[in-house]
Amino acid sequence: MATRLVQINMKAHDDSVLGRFWAEALGWGVDSEGPGVTNLEPVGFDYPDPAAVCIDIIARPEPKTVKNRVHIDLATTSAAHQAELVAHLKDLGATLTDVGQGDVPWTVMADPEGNEFCVLERRPIYRDTGPIAAVVVDCADPRAMARFWGEATDWTVHEVADEHASLRSAQGVGPYLEFVRTPDIKSGWNRVHLDVAPYLGDDPAGEESRLRALGATDPGIDQSSISWKVLVDPEGNEFCLLSPR
C-alpha cells in the first residue's frame, strides 16, 4: 500500500476570490464542491494524476499571522518569461514580499491573501513540471522528512542533503515535493497543508495504520464530523488522508 500526494489545501477568507487568482495565475480551471470550497486543477485533468498537484481552497475566518510553512514555486523558461509572469501576477493582485531572502535570482511574492510563493528563474530541472515547479515545505531536518514522506508515498526521493531534499512522483511527471531547512519554529496550524490519498481499492484504515507506524501521529482534535483523517508528520505538519478515488 502507499499514498500519493494529490493536492494542497489552502485556507482563505474568500475561497472564490483566491481561487480565481490562482486559476488565472496557473492557467487552470475552477470547480466548487459547494459554498466555501473551491477546487483548482488543469483543464481536462483526470483527478487524481501525478502530472499535477491540485489546489483545494477552503474558507476559514482565522487570519494569517505567520509565514506559511508550505508554499508553491512557479516555473519559468527564461528571464523574459520570469519577468512577464511577475508582471502578470502583479496585475492579478499579487505583491512582492520580503521573507529574508536577500539577493536571490528568484522573486518572492504573496497572493492577495498574503500566502507566500516564489517565481523561479529558469532551471532545467523544472522544464517539464507544468506551471508549479515544486511544493516546498519548511522543516528542521530535510533528511528525516524525505525519509518519512518517501516511505509514506510512492514518490521517489531524488536528492537528500542537510539543507534540502526533494521527491517526485514515481512516474517522473508533475511538480517536485521539496523540504528546505529553516530556523523557524512551527507555531499554530498550517494554513497550507498537504493532502494525500491511497490508491483506489486500498484500505484507508490500513493505510492510516501504516502511516502511524512510519511516524505520523494524531493532532488531538475531534474528527467525528469529517470523512477524511487528519494526521501530523514527524515535524508536526498537519496533512489529510483522503478517501481513495
Could you describe the 3D structure shown?
The protein is built from four helices and 15 strands. The chain is of the alpha+beta class. Strand 2 and strand 3 form a beta hairpin. The longest helix has 14 residues. The mean pLDDT is 95.
Task: List the topology elements.
Layout: E1 3-12, H1 15-26, E2 29-34, E3 37-41, E4 54-59, E5 70-74, H2 79-92, E6 95-96, E7 107-110, E8 116-119, E9 132-139, H3 142-152, E10 156-160, E11 164-168, E12 176-181, E13 192-198, H4 204-214, E14 229-232, E15 238-241
Summarize this, please?
By secondary structure, this protein is α+β, with helices and mostly antiparallel strands. It is built from 4 helices and 15 strands.
Structural Rg: 17 Å
String of helices and strands: EHEEEEHEEEEHEEEEHEE
Described by the principal axes of the CA atoms, the overall outline is globular
Characterize the main sheet. 8 strands, mixed
